[in-house]
From TrEMBL:
Keywords: Cell membrane, Lipid biosynthesis, Lipid metabolism, Membrane, Phospholipid biosynthesis, Phospholipid metabolism, Repeat, Transferase, Transmembrane, Transmembrane helix. It is a multi-pass membrane protein. SMART domains: PLDc. Residues 219-246, 397-424 form the PLD phosphodiesterase domain. This is Cardiolipin synthase. Its EC number is 2.7.8.-.
Length: 484
């Protein structure tokens, strides 16, 4: 024993170094084999090899995407997909309702979404909280059968309390209710609204549980989806969280803007399918789609083809990214984008610039006043890359607008919860929808054009005129943009 003790005492530094090198090489090899993005692979391999033990530990905790390999999730999603596909037939030729060039985009989205493009949907644009929240509350108050509500943020404020009270009354009427709030978003207000919901007997839970708990490996993955599904046939989705800052009647002249959508028709079933999948992942409870979905009454005209596009760090990784690339490739006249957080990767920047160089007018509207200062700095540092390609960028000077809107040629729309930043495109669970309808696309285009009229155009000259220290600050913050 003394010989072994003496050996360990004399050679422990060498043994520790050997163990660290062996462990780091094994983990680095795993990172090189698993990461498809060469930049991510290089970064992780560097961190692992240059930071003995610590780098390997960080990768094992935060670098492995365990959700992507969730086989149970794949199986339950297939069951939901089969039900949706059998309940409503897929829509045919999209040319007559939008434009001929979108036929190829429809084929792409057939592969990306796994939901069919379905006709017979009535989609209503709702502007900010003063239109959206009363419509949602009215739907909850009129519910007789079931309510499924999902949000990134559900604040414990005046509008949040109205929702909680409407849900309480629905619970007393015997309505089946489930509420799912992201674990990070649930902490935006104190006390969390979940406590009140649970005291009222409402089944509510957090998505991803507590980031400091057993699922710490998922701390950077968030559900950014916003869904309300009522009585088996009515749905709401879009970019709006539940917080009073979006209501002019409560926040006054400082109220922020956003857009949301009321949906009647088969698309509502797709919303529930996404919610049911997330609910089972978070709680383990399986919601039988046959118990929640009802035969849809014929919605009012116009009825348009649409489908959900879900994306996230799972088998739907980069779904929105692929849709955007396909949409930009088929554009022929005009691309309009409105995004509060505009930080596209180099591939998307290349697609935007290619569209502009083909003679397509590309207008990008961003807030003049952003609610996230660091994101605004990073956005400003990157704007030159799209300006040099011929895109037009506008800073809107009205109050902060949280809308995420895209229209192509006044004939196709892509709306929902996704921002054009690394977090939305790779880390968050997002929900968007594509709509093949000229009327909605023109309505959204008019909304974006109205904001452009209140905007200042950003130019390369205006960016270069900024003081050097501010440009340096922006560039430094931009380096951290994948983590903002």
């Amino acid at each position: 024993m003394s010989v072994l003790t003496d050996f360990l005492r004399e050679y422990w530094p060498h043994l520790t170094a050997l163990l660290s090198l062996s462990f780091s090489l094994i983990v680095a090899a795993q990172a090189a084999m698993q990461k498809n993005d060469v930049r991510a692979a290089i970064a992780w391999v560097g961190v692992i090899l240059m930071s003995p033990f610590v780098g390997a530990f960080l990768y094992l905790v935060a670098g492995i995407n365990r959700i992507r390999h969730d086989q149970m999730s794949t199986q339950r999603s297939r069951l939901v997909k089969d039900y949706v596909n059998s309940a409503h037939p897929a829509f045919g030729d999209v040319g007559p309702v939008s434009a001929p060039q979108f036929a190829s985009l429809r084929v792409l989205c057939d592969q990306v979404s796994r939901f069919p493009l379905q006709g017979g949907n009535h989609v209503t644009l709702l502007d900010s909280g003063d239109q959206t929240y009363p419509a949602m509350l009215r739907a909850i108050d009129e519910a007789h059968h079931c309510i499924a509500l999902q949000s990134y943020i559900f604040d414990h404020d005046r509008i949040g309390l109205r929702f909680a009270e409407s849900l309480r009354r629905a619970q007393e009427r015997g309505v089946e209710i489930r509420v799912l709030i992201d674990a990070v978003g649930a902490r935006y207000s104190h006390p969390p609204i979940l406590r009140l919901l649970e005291r009222n007997g409402i089944r509510a839970d957090r998505f991803m549980t507590n980031p400091l708990g057993l699922r710490s490996a998922y701390a950077n993955l968030r559900s950014h989806r916003k869904i309300l599904f009522v009585d088996g046939h009515l749905g709401f989705m879009g970019g709006m969280n539940i917080r009073e800052s979006f209501m002019a009647s409560l926040a006054g002249r400082r109220a922020d803007s956003d857009t949301h959508f009321r949906i009647e028709g088969p698309l509502a079933t797709q919303l529930f399918a996404v919610f049911a999948n997330d609910w089972e992942f978070a709680t383990g409870e399986r919601l039988r789609i046959e118990d929640w979905v009802r035969v849809s009454p014929l919605p009012p005209a116009p009825r348009v083809p649409a489908r959900c596009i879900r994306s996230g760090p799972d088998r739907f990784m980069a779904a929105t990214h692929r849709v955007l690339l396909g949409a930009l490739a088929v554009a022929q006249r005009h691309v309009r984008i409105q995004s509060p957080y505009f930080l596209p990767d180099q591939v998307l920047i290349g697609a935007l610039n290619t569209a502009a160089r083909r003679g397509i007018q590309v207008d990008i509207v961003i807030p003049g006043r952003n609610n996230l200062r660091l994101v605004n700095y990073a956005m400003t540092a990157q704007l030159a890359q799209v300006l040099e390609g011929g895109c037009r960028v506008w800073r809107c000077h009205k109050n902060f607008d949280h809308s995420k809107l895209l229209t192509i040629d006044d004939a196709w729309s892509y709306v929902g919860s996704s921002n054009l930043d690394p977090r939305s495109l790779r880390l968050n669970f997002e929900l968007d929808m594509e709509v093949y309808d000229r009327a909605l696309a023109e309505q959204l285009s008019q909304r974006i054009d109205a904001d452009i009229e209140q905007s200042e155009r950003v130019t390369l000259e205006s960016l270069n005129a900024m003081p050097y220290l501010k440009r340096l600050r922006n560039r430094i913050i931009w380096l951290a943009s994948p983590y903002l």
